[in-house]
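Technical note accompanying the year-one report. For the benefit of new consortium partners, we illustrate the data format agreed upon in the data management plan: each record pairs a sequence with a structure-token string. No post-processing was applied to the example shown here.
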Amino acid sequence: MLNGKKLSLTLIGLSLISLILTLILSIQTTDPRSHLNLEQRIDFALQLAQNKLIKTINTFEQSSLVGIKYPSYTSKNSSFSLNFWKKRPPSGIWLPDKAKFWSSGAFPALLWQMSTLETELGRKQFWWSYAKSWGEPLRKRSYEDVTINNLLVFRPWLEFTRDEDEKKEQLETILQGARTLAMPYDPLKNQGRFQVELGVMGNKRKADRTDNQVYWHVFTDHIINVEQLLWAAQHNPNSIEAKDWQQKAIRHIKTVGQTFGKNRKPGHTGTWQRGYFDDRPSSPTYRQFLFNEGKQGWRDDTTWSRGQAWIIYATSIAYKYSQDPSLRAIAFEAIDYYMNNLPDSFEGNKRTPHDFIPPWDFDYALEKNPNTERDSSAAAIAISGILKLIPTLPKNDPARPIYLDLVKKTLYQLTSKDYLNDLQSSEMSILQKGCYHHPDAIQPSFECDNGLIWGDYFFVDALLDYRRLMSSSEKD
């Protein structure tokens, strides 16, 4: 940890660098990115990320919110509001949320990522210090979104610290998070995440339907929790417990992959957001997948693009750890559906050439409005997942160049002025045009054109993974 004086000097130095970059770019009349290739755009995007994160740190520090509140999504003002008498924050400012917010860990995880860009120890320590300040309050979290708030925060802490006791503490935090996920469900206590008979992680929940029946509920948003189990299994000294975690993670992915979306018309492999299973032993449909629901998609039976992106990320990670061919097949299906339903692939006059950012709901775009809002966070998550998969594929795998081409085109678009915020803008997020939630499907939404902290995390993750992939390719 830096002392207060050194930390302040480091912050001032980094802020001055950001200010100089801002001044240089502000005098240019055209977007400087228009003349850059993808590699140069990535360098620019990472510099911008540092700038935006320093601005965020400054803002939260001025309000004494470091380690207390977390960026969630940015504010957006409109010309009219029914609550016009209420004071609203300026557009583009992070709306702070508590540590219990589902993606609070994305911000300290981003700060750890920034430290990898630095070569000087003092600058690394600047990012480490704030990553720890925002990471520590998440240590005892035991909610559903374990990977984002646990593994992505405490794994880099484990990797970067040199203190052996500190390393042990981070490892135990990660292992405990995995134990929470792998705990078998106990119907008498209504505790535990893993339903052994069904083979999936989830929870008991009354469906939104009107029958008032409680079922075993599986949420697509939580599927990336398999990464927590798989990484922890590789680092758990207890081989029996480690094997149990690995088996449960793989079984969860297979169960979801073989049910979510599979009951549709042949060839339609888009996923659903919520799935319900019959966990009543006396029922004639015991252990069967019963029905699906949507929450953030257009309808119950449509494909919400961020849900599809979560599936892509999770299945790619699961294959990376397990090398199970059936998981690769599920990942391929998920990616191919995503790729074939992007605006660039729409048919006829619905097509938007060279547009590789998914609409917030694929079916809504195809059936109602092909120009509906895009979700930059879904693109970032999907590409981050695909970049986890590509290095595991043989060089002669025909899918490899196709997927890499999609990665390049998507990152090129995400680093354009349409999606990447400007250095001199007041926007505090790295990416813009994220769609958190689209209430009532087609109503104007304050939450469907925002900066999203999870979008920023997976975007930077994808940029760094792409750099590593290109670097390793040059060495081959």
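Partners are asked to follow this layout when depositing records. The chain has one domain: 4-19+32-79+86-475.
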